């Protein structure tokens, strides 16, 4: 059986040529220059625990049993000791996953892990954390903007997006953080978002047992949010150990990268392996490495729109690369007369020319310019368009990157609806 030909063709390859210049003297880049030019800072990838007991060292198995014994001695066989609806003294694999998270957070020091676990149980009871996910807290204007769960990464982890740039608006800031009561209500809402994400986890050996955090640092008012940020960080560190598999920072100012590089020697390798730091202009390319384009929100260079799920599961996108100096044509063939095609297309970091045309099958037919060539800015959202044909033919989507040397990641998807009435 022959393999179907690819709809993607490289129409031309014409890398931009510069006039010859005298060879410059070699020089060594400064530390700051290197940080400013690096699109992404990334440590060796984090390897998540499997939580299979057979994968534990003998000392770790011993620590797990000692922690269980301490819990039993403190709460008794009939004592109330649950987290996320899972009895910690039940002895099943779900309980083991939670206990191992607390042990890992304290390097398997049993006494420290037990103390952390006890404080967390007390906090959850006082905070009423078990019911917060269902509460109506009234932050409609922040939903889908400041902190929200959206889709999954390529490995199946739920993804939480965070963006605090809206608080550069003083009125918004006062409305949310104006006094201590408002701040506490916001903290409760932020815990609610995290609890909803944790409800998607398996708590099962070999399953999905942590989430991905994506934090957008664009326009974030650092000084004003210091109190709220510190309280959120403290709450999460104390009560949600090992719940984040990877922390992706996007639209990062160059000075943040410099600060991270200065402090990274003081972080453990395990902590550093969870961090991915991407400077401004590279959000889409960075996210594509971990999340499929159809699961990334459109404002971050993906194809996912707010009402996508109302029309059923997201249609998978086809991914491709546009090299510097290339013009790529995507040919969608087989359109019948009267059919309507709807397509979406996105290129990470755009800054290139895009066009779309309909080419009829009939000889002598006229090619229709569906979308005339136009330059797309780096922050442009995904193309979303449709076309109804009056005759059989094909749609050709063109991405012209001949004016750039930069390789760009891209994705597209489409759906064709046939008409009952053929015109």
Notes on the structure:
There is one protein chain. The protein has 423 residues and is α+β, with helices and mostly antiparallel strands. The protein is built from ten helices and 17 strands. The strands form four sheets. The protein has a six-stranded mixed β-sheet. Strand 7, helix 7 and strand 8 (244-252) form a beta-alpha-beta unit. Helix 2 (58-75) packs across helix 3 and helix 3 (93-105) packs across helix 4 (110-127). The chain starts with 7 loop residues before the first strand and ends in a 6-residue tail after the last strand.
Layout of helices and strands, plus pairs?
Layout: E1 8-13, H1 31-37, E2 40-42, H2 58-75, E3 82-83, E4 86-87, H3 93-105, H4 110-127, E5 147-152, E6 158-163, H5 170-177, H6 180-198, E7 211-216, H7 226-239, E8 244-252, H8 254-263, H9 269-272, E9 275-279, H10 283-288, E10 318-322, E11 326-335, E12 340-347, E13 352-360, E14 368-376, E15 383-388, E16 393-400, E17 408-417
Parallel strand pairs: 6-7, 7-8, 8-9
Antiparallel strand pairs: 1-11, 2-9, 3-4, 5-6, 10-17, 11-16, 12-15, 12-17, 13-14, 13-16
Helix pairs in contact: 2-3, 2-4, 3-4, 6-7
């Amino acid at each position: 059986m022959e393999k179907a030909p690819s709809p993607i063709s490289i129409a031309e390859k014409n890398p931009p040529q510069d006039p010859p210049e005298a060879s410059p003297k070699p020089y060594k880049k400064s530390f700051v220059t290197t940080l400013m030019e690096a699109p992404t800072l990334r440590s060796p990838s984090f390897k998540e625990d499997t939580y299979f007991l057979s994968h534990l060292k003998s000392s770790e198995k011993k620590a797990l049993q000692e922690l269980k014994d301490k819990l039993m001695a403190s709460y008794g066989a009939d004592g109330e000791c649950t987290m996320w609806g899972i009895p910690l003294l039940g002895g099943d694999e779900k309980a083991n996953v939670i206990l191992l998270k607390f042990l890992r957070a304290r390097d398997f020091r049993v006494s420290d892990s037990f103390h952390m676990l006890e404080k967390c149980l007390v906090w959850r009871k006082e905070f009423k954390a078990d019911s917060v996910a269902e509460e109506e807290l009234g932050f409609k204007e922040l939903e889908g903007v400041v902190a929200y769960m959206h889709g999954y990464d390529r490995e199946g982890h739920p993804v939480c997006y965070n963006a605090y740039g809206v608080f550069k608006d003083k009125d918004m800031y006062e409305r949310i953080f104006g006094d201590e009561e408002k701040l506490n209500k916001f903290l409760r809402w932020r815990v609610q978002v995290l609890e909803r994400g944790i409800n998607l986890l398996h708590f099962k050996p070999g399953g999905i047992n942590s989430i991905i955090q994506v934090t957008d640092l664009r326009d974030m008012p650092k000084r004003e949010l210091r109190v709220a940020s510190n309280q959120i960080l403290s709450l999460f560190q104390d009560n949600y150990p090992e719940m984040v598999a990877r922390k992706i920072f996007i639209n990062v100012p160059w000075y943040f990268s410099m600060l991270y590089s200065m402090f990274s020697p003081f972080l453990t390798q395990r902590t550093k392996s969870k961090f991915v730091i991407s400077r401004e202009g590279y959000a889409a390319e960075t996210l594509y490495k971990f999340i499929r384009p159809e699961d990334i929100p459109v404002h971050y260079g993906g194809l996912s729109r707010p009402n996508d799920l109302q029309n059923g599961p997201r249609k998978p996108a086809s991914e491709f690369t546009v090299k510097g100096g290339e013009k790529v044509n995507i040919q969608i063939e087989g359109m019948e007369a009267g059919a309507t095609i709807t397509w979406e297309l996105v290129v990470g970091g755009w800054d290139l020319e895009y066009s779309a045309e309909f080419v009829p099958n009939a000889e002598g037919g006229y090619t229709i310019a569906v979308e005339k060539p136009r330059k797309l800015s780096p922050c442009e959202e995904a193309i979303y368009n449709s076309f109804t044909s009056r005759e059989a033919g094909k749609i050709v989507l063109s991405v012209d990157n001949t004016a750039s040397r930069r390789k760009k990641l891209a994705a597209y998807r489409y759906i064709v609806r046939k008409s009952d009435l053929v015109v």
